[in-house]
Model the fold of this input.
Amino acid sequence: MKTVTLAGQTVPAIGIGTWHMGDDPRQRSAEIATIQAGLAAGARVIDTAEMYGSGRAETLVGEALQGIDRQGVFLISKVLPENASRARMRASVEASLSRLGTDYLDLYLYHWRGRVPLAETVTELQHLQADGIIRAWGVSNFDVSDLDELWALPQGANAQANEDLYHLGSRGVDYAVLPWQRQHHLPLIAYSPVAQGDAWGQHLTTNPVVQQLADKYQVSVYQILLAWVIRQPQVLAIPQTSSVAHMRQNLAAGELTLSPADLDALDQQYPAPTHKQPLDVI
Done:
């Protein structure tokens, strides 16, 4: 499987997303089984956030991790903008740790920009790291201007990742954000890498070229979409699923390499941007 170096650790380039998990009690057993199946199949990264279900996703992940070697899991959570301050961040991360049933996070992300000055947020993230509550920190939903502002801070370049929306139908970060991150050796975490099953109208799974490639490699259309996202180094995809079978398929996409001709065909259907675009956020 393709790998990514994230906060000094080598992890598979496809992880486990948890947005929308933990909301339906009827799905709880299936969701826990899916996370555990993903870890058993080789996944290491679990991405969650205090925002997801107002903590319910973190609680679900904590239940799924019971009895599993914590050292084998790279656990990411995120702090809400209103909690990203000197006065509130420590209580926020401690609540996340309690729900997750762990005493540290491998990576803690500032979920998106809010009213708290960025310098204050970075300072507090550094304090949490120094105390061992988090092993590393990063950001999410940052555009190039945000990254420039971050890097201008004395400790801003200590960020270990930026998590943005990225999939075949949303390629805005290809123009400026990804080149910036490659230049500064900052990995990208791609959320909603299969466009939430076409929930936003990109029609990726019904596109004839995507379907032809799925037939060619005898894989699902979702595996083609994931292979496209991780086609370049230092990009980690975190698809979410509540199906054990889909989870295993997602992870298997980490072993699929699309040819240059395949990529050209997909570019014809979903062209790369030719100018700077506003950052897509959902």
